Amino acid sequence: MKIVVTGGAGFIGSHFIRYLLKKYPDCQILNIDRLTYAGNIHNLDDVSSDRRYCFVQEDICHQKEMTTLLRDWDILVNFAAETHVDRSLVNPEAFIRTDVLGVFSLLRSAYQCKLRKFIQISTDEVYGSVSQGRLKETRLLSPSNPYAASKAAADLLALSYWKSYGLPVCIVRSTNNFGPFQHPEKMIPLFITNALLNKKLPVYGEGKQIRQWLFVEDHCGAIDLILQKGENGQVYHVSPERGYRNLTVARKILRLLGKPDSLMEFVKDRAGHDYRYSLNCQKIKALGWKPRHSFNSAFAKTVQWYKENTGWWQPIREGDFQEYYRQQYG
Ligand code: NAD
Ligand code: TYD
To answer: What is the pLDDT of residues 20-31, one digit of tens each?
Structure first.
């Protein structure tokens, strides 16, 4: 299997590369990543000398370069994106550039290079807030913020490349992921690292919003299954059984670290904040997928990982993150 992973130096992409190297002795992997503030090549230190793996620093928006790089490869899985909702509210341009125009560039290159599979990693956010029940893949898209809108646009473009040109595309829409190596601007690692530093946990609004937290390795298993068995032109949801309120997640973190609830601080709510995401994943279950990790044990392991790997997250928090955090919370 010759597979290009774009955005492989980020959170989920780096787990997916490690997953492939472990599972497929004969795979060859090319990781293409621009290394934005969110990309961290150290996420892959443990596999960087593996002969089956190579890395090129490049921007997916550079179509000519992408076409040159994709030549002679079979499969592309695209994780590259601007991914943080709060940043999209202050700098939407970056999201339109990478999440829309970058995907357009990749689709054109993939078509020219006749790739045999193009997997676009999407998100539950494309549907907007879900008042009740669990959404199926056929639900109308109704994104609430520029990040979600840019991902929705990319999904539609990718599907159009299947319908118009026969490019073999599948879309994977998962719920919120958690696990090691997630950038500490996202809620779970932000709350864990703040708690470790005895700083306040900034809970937006009343903290009642609900997310279905998926352990990142279960997401990787699902992407692999879709790679093997997914039908072209189809969208697949990936989600765990139940959702948790943000407040519950914050309390779990404080309990696991032996910190008081008084570390929680209720701050101004996010603009256009989606109250609840909830996906039905019967379609991928019918292909044979189920989560292998229980939420509680994967969550406890994740908290422990951040506790033991301060050397990974401290330099990130001391970099550009410091300024970002100051702008957000003063
Ligand atoms: P991340 O922010 O950790 O990583 C994104 C990676 O993309 C980084 O390595 C960055 O350097 C790279 N990148 C950004 N712009 C690029 C460009 N123009 N060219 C090349 N590389 C570029 O993101 P993540 O959390 O790992 O998410 C990966 C994908 O999964 C995204 O498409 C996201 O929308 C989707 N997703 C994420 C979650 C989640 O909870 N994290 C949930 C559902 C879907
Ligand atoms: P986030 O990790 O940004 O993911 P998403 O917006 O894609 O769901 O946020 C998860 C939830 O946590 C979301 O409801 C917003 C909330 N949140 C906070 O309450 N405080 C924070 O500092 C952050 C970053 C998020």
So the answer is: 999 999 999 999
